[in-house]
Design brief:
Elements (H helix, E strand, L loop, with lengths): L8 H7 L3 E11 L7 E8 L3 E6 L8 E9 L5 E16 L2 E8 L9 H14 L1
Antiparallel strand pairs: 1-2, 1-4, 2-3, 3-6, 4-5, 5-6
Length: 125
């Protein structure tokens, strides 16, 4: 326990199935002078996530990602994760962006995202 695994895009696609999860996200790249990029989260798993945005990030950018969730009472909860941009593809309305998390999503570190992924994966099993 406590071991961190960093994976590549190919590893991510083979080892973990992504689930649809759509919602607003803010992405801050280390080299963007602290200015956050507005993005939409499209899908996620315990190793990474896919986003779309109007602005481009660079492959290998170190990023901080903030995602909002509603809990069972309808209150907004925030998840803050760090990762690396694994890929960027042009898209008709901007760019598709794949991020690999620095740490695998766990119940202890990422309560809201872990719960959503866990419940969604149970439903589709």
């Amino acid at each position: 326990m406590g071991q961190t695994t960093k994976t590549t895009k190919a590893d991510d696609r083979r080892r973990q199935r992504r689930v649809t999860l759509v919602g607003p996200a803010l992405i801050t790249a280390a080299g963007r002078s602290g200015r956050a990029l507005s993005a939409v989260l499209d899908n996620a798993n315990r190793l990474g996530a896919g986003f779309h945005a109007r602005e481009q990030l660079q492959v290998n950018d170190t990023v901080s990602v903030s995602i909002a969730f509603l809990d069972q009472e309808g209150d907004e909860q925030q998840e803050k994760l760090t990762g690396t941009v694994a890929w960027v593809k042009p898209w008709e309305k901007g760019f598709l962006i794949g991020v690999v998390w620095d740490h695998m999503i766990t119940k202890e570190l990422n309560r809201w995202l872990y719960s959503y992924l866990n419940e969604t994966l149970k439903e589709t099993a």
